[in-house]
Amino acid sequence: MRPELLNPLFAEIEVLKGIGPAIAKPLAKLGLSRIVDLLFHLPTGLVHRQRVARLDDAVEGTIISVEVTPTEYRQSGVRGPFRVLAVDRDGDVLALTYFGGGGGYARKQLPLGVKKLVSGKLELYGQERQIVHPDYVIALEDGQQLPENEAIYPLSEGITSRRMGQLVAQAMPRAPDLAEWIEPSLLEKRGWPGWLAALKDIHQRPANSLARDRLAYDELFANQLALMLVRASSRRRRGMPLSGDGHLRDKLTLLYVLTGAQRRTIAEIEGDMAQQTPMVRLLQGDVGSGKTLVALHALLIAAECGAQGAMLAPTEILARQHYETLRAQLAGLPVNVAILTGRDKGRAREATLMGLADGSIHILVGTHAIFQEAVSYKKLALAVVDEQHRFGVAQRLLLTQKAESPPHLLVMTATPIPRTLTLTHYGEMDISRLDEMPPGRQPIDTRVLSVERLAEVVDGLARHIAAGGQGYWVCPLVEESETSDRAAAEARAAALKLRFGEKIGLVHGRMKGPDKDAVMQRFQEGELSILVATTVIEVGVDVPNATLMIIENAERFGLAQLHQLRGRVGRGAQHSVCLLLRGDALSETARARLALMRETNDGFRIAEEDLRLRGAGEILGVRQSGEAQFRLATPEHVTSLIQFATDDARLLVDRDGGLEEKRGKAARLALYLFERDAAVALIRSG
Ligand code: ADP
Ligand code: MG
Question: Which of 256, 282, 386, 433 has most ligand 1 atoms within 8 Å of its beta carbon, as the pocket-test mutant?
């Protein structure tokens, strides 16, 4: 339960005065529904209102305040703006212009002959000075109400920075002072203010970096503390120590030798699995680095011990592909592999469920169905999760908490993740990196071409197809909409079909599973030469004969995504080409992205650059998973502060795992404040 002290922060925003439907809408749009949301909605800068005595002292285009006396009302046309002409002390004219409405409001605010203090952006309209919709119209005696500096907030239509500032001012007294959770020495070294002081200050002085950093640190600290609690909690659990004797692994016939990175990683996993503490390990390896084989070794260790292993894939297609790969590699070995997805029904499904329950199935591959209630294992000792980024902390936790004795967990991701983000997203896990590609892999030749050269590209495609080659043609998301996304791919496929006929296939996100699989299969079997696709093919599909990747409007993709897509080719020994077709209006960032793609195949380098260019949120698709989205911490904060926050959180959990001492208690507040409530349940008790 959240401590009562914090309740005022989590009250609905409606408790403030003056929140009518008109303002509730833009607030909701900004995601501001509670007091805490409002207080954490930080200003981006200040407007300075230059107080001038006379209009001649004012600079056009700046925000001023000046005393003027209204002299005349003008309504131009029925629909035209209502204008109040006013004069300053020299008799120079300022028009105060109001659009919409008949001027009733303006007349009330600006009675003729009554001097007022007005403030807003001074513009020139023809020869005339004007302020459109003044921000303030104030009686002279209330002049001190006019702030000289005013915070500027991120806005949406229907709310102004001024209004936002008023709401914040109203909300601020509800914020309680909280005990300090930051290590005193760190606080002192950085010169940071306390939590409440920082919060108050940042809304007054948005440029105060000490206050801003402090708040960012709080958020990062809470996140890391939550992860460290997850870590400590999973380490307290007793799992199944598995030391395989190698009798199955020895029988594996590999057509190649393991890379050094694969051997190192397998050894790390072996070491983990032999422990009673369940393994919680993240395996990072670029597309094609050979993660599947590492997973297979782990699964065989489980099987050697008479236990079961399950491998979770994010999509039906990938589940089937893994299933086929494993079956092929295990042919002749006494290991029973089965598949289970949402699509398996009826008798086949029953048989699989039975085999899992009686232990005759040793390895199960599937989609989320494999961890549903109805599925019970005789002795599940290892869970492998492929393509991690759709599988969040909460789900990982569920998995390790579910079983009586929790399975060892190996999470694999093909998204090379910058080091700092590894800490924020997977801080509770041990990390292995496959940072070495299998030998003989040729770098993919990447070229950036203007879309104006489409005809040439299609001619090149014709030669490629004629030579028996295969490839992908990826169409981007259009306007973030699934429908138009599909439409673009459909149109492209139709155009290509006119020339290449039935050699063209199409897959997109809206297709039903079986239909999609059927197309994929025809592509895999070489019946189709070109697969036109939306980004559904982004994850994991393996067709070694496909050596050409064409990405249309490549500038609309992020780096990580481009890298993932490009990774679909270059999987065999043949030379592969990636063509990035770009539109002509390129932003600076887009240009930099495409240049980097041309320059390197190194996923980890691309990931670091991606972080620099775009910010953390985009990289991992955290939008979907909804976690580790920081409200106060920017990517720069993550880079500069995450290590400190991680070390600090780890130290705290080591020293006071029950969070019972003074700082520990304060740290609990930070967890609640940043809504890491679930982690509180994991605090060691007693
Ligand atoms: P990913 O890490 O993307 O899942 P895969 O496991 O699918 O990569 O491996 C990519 C390809 O590399 C597969 O065809 C696999 O058989 C092959 N491969 C894996 N390990 C090696 C190795 N040590 N030497 C040569 N080829 C390998
Ligand atoms: Mg894979």
Answer: 256
Asked if 79 and 46 touch (Cβ cutoff 8 Å), the reply is: no
Residue 380 in domain: yes
DSSP per-residue letters across 346-402? HHHHHHHHHHHHHT---EEEESGGGGSTT---SSEEEEEEESGGGS-HHHHHHHHHH
Question: Could you tell me if 408 and 464 lie in one domain?
Answer: no
pLDDT per position as a tens digit, 63-116: 999 999 999 999 877 788 999 999 999 999 999 999 887 788 899 999 999 999
- Of the listed ligands, the closest to the CA of 328 is 1
- What's the total number of domains in the chain? 3
Judgement on whether residues 268 and 369 belong to the same structural domain of the protein: yes
Say what the pLDDT of residue 394 is: 67
Q: For the domain that residue 307 is a member of, what is the CATH number?
A: 3.40.50.300
Cβ(276)–Cβ(265) below 8 Å: no
pLDDT, one tens digit per residue, over 348-388 is: 999 999 999 999 999 999 988 887 778 889 999 999 998 75
Task: Give the closest residue to 167 by CA, choosing from 14, 28, 5.
Answer: 14
Residues 387, 424 within the same domain: yes
Q: What is the tens place of the pLDDT at every residue in 122-154? A: 999 988 999 999 989 999 998 888 888 889 999
Residue 126, Cβ density class (10 Å: 0-12 exposed, 13-18 middle, ≥19 buried): exposed
CA 497 – ligand 2 centroid, Å: 31
Same domain, 370 and 336: yes
Supply the range of the domain harboring residue 471: 445-600
Task: Tell how far the Cα of 288 is from the centroid of ligand 2, in angstroms.
Answer: 7
569 domain residue, yes or no: yes
How would you class 347 by CB atoms within 10 Å of its CB: exposed for 0-12, middle for 13-18, buried for 19 or more? Answer: exposed
Within 6 Å (CB) of ligand 1, which residues are found?
256, 258-259, 262, 285, 287-293, 414, 438, 542, 571
> Distance between the two ends of the chain, CA-based, in angstroms?
18
Q: Of 146, 169, 193, which closes a domain? A: 146
- Which has the closest alpha carbon to 598: 611, 579, 612? 579
Q: For the full predicted model, state whether its pTM sits above 0.90.
A: no
pLDDT tens for 10-66 read 999 999 998 988 899 999 999 999 999 999 999 999 989 999 999 999 999 999 999
Mean pLDDT over 175-192 rounds to 96
Whole-angstrom distance, CA of residue 202 vs CA of residue 218: 14
| Cα(510) to centroid(ligand 1), Å | 30
Do residue 459 and residue 396 come from a single domain?
no
Question: In terms of domains, do 256 and 342 share one?
Answer: yes
Q: Are 442 and 294 in contact (CB under 8 A)?
A: no
